[in-house]
Amino acid sequence: MANSNYPQPAFHFRVDWGGTSISFTEVTGLxxxxxxxxxxxxxxxxxxxxxxxxxxxxxxxTFKRGIFTGDNDYYExxxxxxxxxxxxxxxxxxxLDESHxxxxxxxxxxxxxxxxxxxxxxxxxxxxAIESLEVAHEGLVIENG
Length: 145
Known about the structure:
Elements: E1 13-17, E2 20-22, E3 26-28, E4 32-39, E5 50-58, E6 61-66, H1 73-78, E7 89-96, E8 102-117, E9 130-136, E10 140-144
Antiparallel strand pairs: 1-2, 1-7, 3-6, 4-5, 6-9, 7-8, 8-9, 8-10
């Protein structure tokens, strides 16, 4: 059993979308923001605004991974976007413990590809070619424990 005195490392995770598990080197953008509404009525005795919670806003999530020969998953998903139709998928990101069990899970609702960025190519470089996929979604559910 893991010692609860130490936080979980961020390097052991799994991403599932549409029933497929895909490996990534990096996942960023798992955030939720509550927009703030400022309001003041004219008869208020206080010369400042009242702040209220507004709509929730979910940031796009970016997935990065190495380029593999013949692997076109990103582009095939992007190609499903046509006029007024989008193939939306559930996406689940799981932070795993040493036994490969989920410790924390982020679930993206109705995700679809918003941007694909190819690798940066450099003739004198010595790195792996990394491509990225930015995914828009309509909600983020977080399950911890």
